[in-house]
Specification:
alpha+beta; five-stranded mixed beta sheet; 19% helix
Length: 400
């Protein structure tokens, strides 16, 4: 493991830190956001992008479905008689913290996706797991730890086999990601937020055969995702630290609260039924210290702001006290941050008095090495978030 003591000392931080502070220091030192020489162009209303920052893990065999059922937050259908399209999910640790967020696609043995079973004449359940490319190998290792005597094969899919695409704004794409022209291996509707589009897995070198739209970069796709308030991957859902509800995994359809036991279920279910989620990841906009607060969330590709590193604290302007949130990642003038809802937004969680005041402004202050930097920051609550808050309140009233 890298020795952080010299790095911490050079940044004015003591190497003798408690465990919590050391975790934050690691994120600041190792997950910094570089200066933006150029920002990606704004996303088009209709488009598609090759998601080169994602990778696939293949799991095939008799016990594949039952195995994943005990490890994921979503319900896995283990019967071939009831087909299931792809879906969003998460893998948790025993303490209920998110380790990996992923899409899982049922892909039974066929000419497209072959199992490694010796009995190839028998169709066996199989799945493709779409995960953050930088951490695909660690997820494979995590899954292997729980395999024991379960009957299935597990492998990291070679990058030359398939490509993962994200599409949006297309009327000629079906709910499973298929099109009238062109053949995909598997796919699904991206239900994490309204208008997110579809995920499609195609043979290497193929492109979605759509009638409209333009191809964009994965960076532009990420700008669109950030504007919708959808976190993804280890940079935004910090592995081993983030709670699923704080990371909006529940709002994005990644948790089935009616399914049976799985790793990390206890805290997740208890929070859902009895707890109050006071922090959530929200889209934010940064602006200059001498500028007025923006009235709406808007991406500026010409922004020259140098954004801070991950885990940078957010606080009230001209006020000291408990932090209001933590910066995660951004591009140009927008980003994602973990925000205290009753401090940074008008969302009411309980009948108690809220700390939110429309006159309050928030800022981030940091020292990247060439003097102190400051930016103001404003959180925005997506409409689909507010709809979920209403559904939650209705369910609690019914259960009271």
């Amino acid at each position: 493991m890298q020795d952080l003591a010299p790095i911490l000392s050079s940044r004015g931080l003591s190497p003798r830190l408690c465990r919590s502070c050391l975790t934050t220091a690691k994120l600041r030192c190792l997950s910094s956001t570089p200066a933006q020489a150029s920002n990606p162009p704004p996303p088009p209303s209709t488009g598609f992008a090759h998601l080169t920052n994602r990778a696939l893990i293949s799991i095939h065999g008799h016990d594949a479905g039952h195995f994943l059922q005990g490890l994921t937050t979503s319900n896995i259908k283990t019967s071939n008689s009831s087909p299931q399209s792809g879906f969003y999910s998460a893998f948790l640790n025993a303490q209920g913290r998110v380790l990996y967020d992923a899409f899982i696609y049922p892909a039974h043995q066929s000419d497209d996706v072959k199992a490694t079973s010796r009995r190839e004449e028998v169709e066996e359940p199989g799945f493709l797991i779409d995960v953050d490319k930088a951490h695909a190998e660690t997820l494979r290792t995590h899954l292997k730890r729980f395999k024991l005597r379960a009957k299935f094969s597990l492998r990291l899919v070679d990058p030359g086999e398939y490509d993962i695409w994200g599409t949006w704004g297309h009327d000629d794409i079906h709910s499973d990601g298929s099109t009238e022209a062109g053949s995909q291996v598997v796919g699904c509707k991206d239900t994490r937020a309204p208008g997110m589009g579809h995920r499609i897995i195609m043979y290497n070198g193929q492109r979605p055969q759509t009638t409209v739209g333009e191809e964009t970069s994965v960076e532009t796709y990420d700008v669109r995702r950030i504007l919708k308030g959808v976190p993804q991957g280890h940079d935004e859902i910090i592995s081993g630290e983030a709670l699923p509800q704080e990371s909006n995994v529940d709002y994005m359809g990644g948790i089935d609260f009616r399914k049976g036991c799985y790793v990390g279920q206890e805290l997740t279910i208890r929070t859902h039924h009895t707890g109050v989620v006071r922090k959530r990841i929200l889209p934010v906009q940064v602006y200059g210290m001498d500028e007025k607060p923006p009235e709406s969330l808007k991406y500026d590709p010409h922004s020259s702001f140098v954004l801070p590193s991950a885990a940078q604290n957010i606080g009230r302007v001209n006020t000291r006290g408990r932090t209001a949130g933590k910066w995660l990642k951004g591009a140009g003038s927008v980003g994602l941050a973990l925000c205290r809802l009753e401090t940074m937004t008008d969302v009411r969680l309980t009948e108690e008095a809220s700390q939110w005041n429309p006159e309050h402004e928030f800022k981030m202050s940091w020292q990247p090495g060439d003097g102190e930097k400051e930016l103001k920051i404003k959180a925005f609550v997506p409409e689909w978030h507010r709809n979920q808050v209403g559904v939650r309140d209705m369910h609690r009233q019914q259960n009271a």
